Amino acid sequence: MKPMTLIVSTLIFVLFACSDSAPAPISNKTTASEIVASNNSVTTDQTDAISPRYKNGTNDQNKGDKTGIVRLHGNIAAASGSMMYLYETEARNIALLDSAKVVGGIFNFNNLEIGRGIYELVLNGKANNKTQIILNPDESDVDIDFKSSRLNGNKTAPSSIENTAWFKYITLENRNKNEIKNLRKGMKDSPYRSRIEEQIKGKELELVQTQHEMMDTYSGTYFAKLISWKNPMYPNSQGKYFEDLDPLDNSLIHTMAISDRIQGMMVKFSKGEDSRFFACIDMIKAHFEPNPKTLESALYAMLDGFYNTGKEDICQYILDNYIFDEDCGADLSDVIRLRAQGIINLQVGKTPPNFNIEEYNGGKVNLMETAAKNQYTLVMFWASWCHKCEQEIPVLIPLYSKYSGKGFEAIGVSIDQARKSWRDVIETKGMQYLNVSQLQGWDSPIVKDYKITATPTYFLLNSKGEIVLKPKRIYEVDAYISQNLK
Q: Is the full-model pTM beyond 0.90?
């Protein structure tokens, strides 16, 4: 492993000292005044105080993971022959688990061998028609009744306490988030800013109270444990920030818990400094080290997060020290290495995934074949509704006219969903370069392959299909091409 700084080593020592002891008993009852006091306090120093927002949702009934056979079935107002797809989740990633045909308005998944976690149902493979459910082998028969063909619409789960609780909670949480979002919109330049901030704190308090009440109502369920992970036990202690997440509990993997907690830690303790990011990474790795499965999930969540925020140097630290290191990476599976390779392939000097996608004027565009025919090929991810794209496209068009036919090609990859919106912009702007789209929005496979989280995003490839530049603006492409095109 590469040498680490003194601060990193010292912080890891603190982590080991803290994580060996069991948490102190916690009262199940938290008063509103305690939560308000917690919300209003500003912490400048780290403290081991237990947050009043935290409530332990784990008991002997729902502790750890459990694997078993579950039957998932239900009713939906969809045409016979429609297909229902079931995916297992890992943070924001999904993997197809099974599919079932809708016959007479009924779907049926028999003999699913699953572990506890959040799963996703998708109708007819359409990314905009999906919903998340809880599956727990403690409930061997799960019946979901959809009131329409929209999976995110009204639905009930007559035989599932887990999903009765989950559907109710998600409705309340979404309502609460929308109310807070609307309040935040009114804060800008408002003379009543302090009053609005108090209203936001009140709404946050309402959600915490709802969480605590529902954890009591549905005690012993996986739902109760899942909700308890939303609020850290020690939010102001870097060394104990993950203490309430049991690294041996594999049911953590099929949720957003690890990813959300990592993001919370980085925001709270890193201060945007690389050395502090490294310290957080080392602590997280140490916490999950007893279980290779949760460790892999945590490592990939960090890789994904840092890559998506443009911190590729931090990604390299994780890759070098914890995934491809001969000592630290010894117990990891090939799966995490393949995932890591997907990020490596998007770095300068590497070859990104090939694609073969429908072109605006008909036919298909193969990236590697196109790159091989040109000295440089620009891949631009854009969308018809993207304001920055509106500013950049008029700069790309004359650049393309200048170098087209001289060894330069450009491919616009739209992440639109509506074909008309996509075509209208191409025709209005007069975009003469290649344009492709899978018309699946942010759920497009190419978006996932290239880890696109914002538009516009650019990759400049050479004739070998290798990335030579990842510019932020078109003028950077112009400068590079003018110097290097022969």
A: no
